[in-house]
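Encoded backbone
================
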Amino acid sequence: MGAAPTPEPVAVTTVDRARCPTGIEALDNILEGGIPRGNTVLIAGSVGTGKTTLTLEFLIHGADRGERSLFLSVTESTPKLIENMRSFEFFRPELITSGYLMLVDVPVVYQRLGLDHEEMRPDEIDIFLRTLDAFLTESRAERVVIDSLTSLAYRIQREERVRDFMLRLSEILSAHGCTSLLVSEIGPVPGRYSLRGVEEAIVDGLILLGNARRHGDILRVLQVIKMRGTAHSRAQYVVEMTPIGLLLAPHLKGGLSEEG
């Protein structure tokens, strides 16, 4: 028998995902143009590392581009958030009055739905998610931030219910085509990026914010741990918070040690 014919090479076609620019130039460069549209991303870090600032900048830039942007705040009131946004030179109050930048106080939603006790039962979780689903339909939000997912999950408490909640939340956000950032406080358990340790396994992306010490100074640092739909750098970057937004620069590893 003759030699078997050499198979023709198979062309591999890659689909270039549409990107949702964060407006933070260096972060968009790390992600090759921005977050893949439709991704749900965990923004994890300890207190004071810039999580809320990053998400506000993401929303303001989106609203400025004509994309409906929604901030669901579990811990801070709308007036306080507006004061925080005034520190950005690029923030314009008319983004709120025009409806492109929407701020919702989740505790007010709890009260209106009668969900005002410490732990939400399964039927109450269902009510909350159906209300969110309906609001996303009404608002036509393209960018969504929840600050914080940790506070929401705390009221669910049981790990199996947190997992079910996360799966359903991700499905709702995906069904509406939202590109979403979920803020997560890092707890005391090493290796976890969320309260229960299940949230990071379900989301499409994970951006870690932390502190590092160098020569006696404490620096904010950022690292993209994972992001489905794009190649990305896993290097660590030093973060500087300025009136023109977050600025990132590769850190020099010499003499740098991690903080919590």
